[in-house]
Specification:
The complex is a heterodimer of chains A (185) and B (361). Chain A is mostly helical. Helix content of chain A is 66%, strand content 0%. Chain B is rod-shaped. Classes of the chains: A mainly alpha (185), B alpha+beta (361).
């Protein structure tokens, strides 16, 4: 049995091992769990088809991660007209045809308590208000703790503009969340 | 510090620790002096901390099923599961087939391997020009080079060849008889000289035996022994290849014994009686009955072409000596001129006091 066939047979195990990571990334990139599930599925299908391109089996998780980013970029390009390319203060995505948030209005997070699930719900809402690239920056940097160089490579953004872009995205999120976190801090 | 000098972008970089020392000192100095920037810095830190605490999301099981179905993994998994029983079944079939082959071969051809205690070269006198039919494995199965008394050549027991004349004696033969009677009998061939001895042409051997199984016995010089040969000590060397002429048995398709019989001859008188009924008028072969016995089987009269009978071997048990024989429809081949047969097979075996049992295979 060759290594590729062995990899194919073991693929489901790898998929389940890294499924949560990919699904979390996809859901946050898309700002919606349903869209995230679709992106995850596309990611795993692409991985299964391109298994022969995997160089190191130990890097399977990282490979899934990159494939998910790539799939997200392709999906974003498809809907480029619906999303602003890099609006720092973009309008809420649902107004641009993006995925609808579970929390329809900007005032809704103000009603949640900045603790436990309420805090995550508010963050989720804030992310859903961002444009695709903004969301990707904040997810990769603040949630997945990727370095500026890695983000620059993954999103194909010039490295020297990374500091400014990330700063603006963070300020955007801060502005969305300031009504509730100001009461806490 | 004025608002224009607020290091808004640098605050984010400062949080990520991607500023140089000079910038870091400048930002830290500013933060100690500007409450707005300090508050913004705390808010950014808090948001970043909360973001990093984001839980891992668990995908639904349907996601994995969907990927499996769409990628074709499900098929492969099914095949992988089924391949194991298929391989096992195939291996089992092969094993059963091999076992069946072994058993079949053993029963048909290799049974004589059991009978190593059966010396063959045991005659004082060897019959000349007696058709001797032995399977090749049987020849190699005579390890006991029983030393034999020098032979005195005596004429072979000659049985009247089966010709149309003999066929005509059968009064009530079916339609085949009429066909045979129309055939002109072949004139007898003149005697040939083999190894300096005159050998009468034996129609019987030509008629009854297949070419590869027919061996014309030629007497040779055989050493004499007065005691029963040891089956172990007298094993022949490889160079001491046994000749067919040393193997003593009588086998053919035309005996005068017209009934199915199993015979065990223990004495010379019994041998004479046997030969009188088997081949009347022919010289009786001399056998040292102090050392050997003769066993035999006759099939009786048959009209089935090619059908014969043969002794496969013997086996000594604590209670008896078992003689294995078989009847087969393909023992003889060249028989187009003959319609009636009486196959027989007599064989010399070491003398035994045990009762002899005949067992058909």
């Amino acid at each position: 049995m060759d290594s590729l066939e062995k990899l194919r047979q073991q693929f489901e195990g790898h998929m389940r091992a890294h499924g949560a990571m990919v699904f979390s990334l996809a859901t946050r990139l898309m700002g919606d769990p349903v869209e995230g599930a679709k992106l995850t599925e596309v990611t795993f299908l692409a991985a299964y088809i391109q298994l022969d391109q995997l160089k190191d089996e130990d890097q399977m998780g990282e490979w899934f991660y990159r494939l998910c980013i790539r799939a997200w970029k392709e999906k974003t390009l498809e809907t480029k007209k619906q999303y602003s390319r890099f609006k720092i203060y973009a309008s809420p995505s649902h107004k641009e045809g993006g995925p609808e948030s579970e929390i329809p209005g900007l005032d809704a997070p103000l009603m949640v308590v900045w603790e436990g699930e309420g805090r995550q719900k508010a963050l989720k809402h804030a992310l859903s208000q961002l444009g695709p690239e903004e969301r990707a920056l904040i997810v990769l940097r603040d949630i997945d703790d990727k370095s500026y160089e890695e983000i620059s490579e993954l999103l194909e953004i010039p490295l020297d503009t990374m500091t400014t872009r990330i700063a603006r995205v963070r300020d955007h999120v801060r502005q969305i969340l300031i009504p509730i976190i100001s009461k806490v801090l | 510090m004025t608002s224009e000098a607020h290091p808004l972008d640098q605050l984010s970089a400062y949080i990520d620790e991607v500023v140089n020392n000079e910038e870091r000192l400048s930002i830290e100095t500013h933060l100690t002096q500007c409450q707005d920037c300090e508050r913004r810095y705390q808010e950014l830190l808090h948001i970043r901390k909360v973001l990093r605490e984001s839980p891992i999301l668990v995908p639904p099981e349907s996601l994995y099923r969907s990927v499996r179905d769409r990628s074709g993994m499900a098929k492969k998994v099914t095949w992988r599961r089924l391949r194991i029983p298929f391989a096992a079944i195939a291996a089992l079939c092969l094993l059963l087939f091999a076992v069946w082959l072994c058993i079949d071969k053993f029963l048909k051809h290799q049974l004589t391997l059991l009978f190593l205690d059966m010396p063959q070269q045991i005659f004082k006198h060897i019959a000349v020009s007696t058709p001797i039919a032995l399977a090749p494995e049987t020849q190699s199965m005579n390890p006991s080079s029983a030393t034999i008394i020098p032979s005195v050549v005596t004429p072979a027991p000659v049985v009247t060849p089966a010709t149309t004349t003999s066929v005509a004696r059968v009064p009530s033969l079916p339609k085949e008889e009429e066909k045979v009677e129309k055939i002109v009998p072949t004139p007898a061939k003149p005697p040939k000289k083999v190894s300096g001895k005159t050998v009468r042409p034996n129609r019987r051997s030509k008629v009854a035996l297949s070419p590869e199984r027919v061996v014309t016995a030629v007497p040779g010089e055989i050493p004499k022994t007065s005691t029963r040969p040891s089956l172990v000590a007298n094993l022949p060397s490889h160079s001491q290849v046994l000749k067919p002429s040393d193997l003593v048995e009588w086998k053919g398709a035309h005996s005068k014994i017209q009934k199915k019989r199993t015979l065990h001859i223990r004495s010379a008188s019994g041998m004479r009686d046997l030969w009188r009924r088997h081949a009347p008028g022919e010289p009786v072969p001399e056998v040292d009955f102090e050392v050997y016995d003769v066993v035999g089987v006759t099939l009786g009269q048959t009209h089935v072409k090619g059908k014969g009978i043969e002794i496969m071997g013997t086996r000594t048990t604590p209670d008896s000596l078992i003689v294995y024989y078989r009847e087969a429809a393909d023992l003889f081949r060249q028989h187009s001129m003959v319609v009636a047969y009486a196959p027989y097979h007599f064989k010399v075996i070491p003398k035994s006091d045990l009762p002899v049992q005949f067992q058909k295979i």
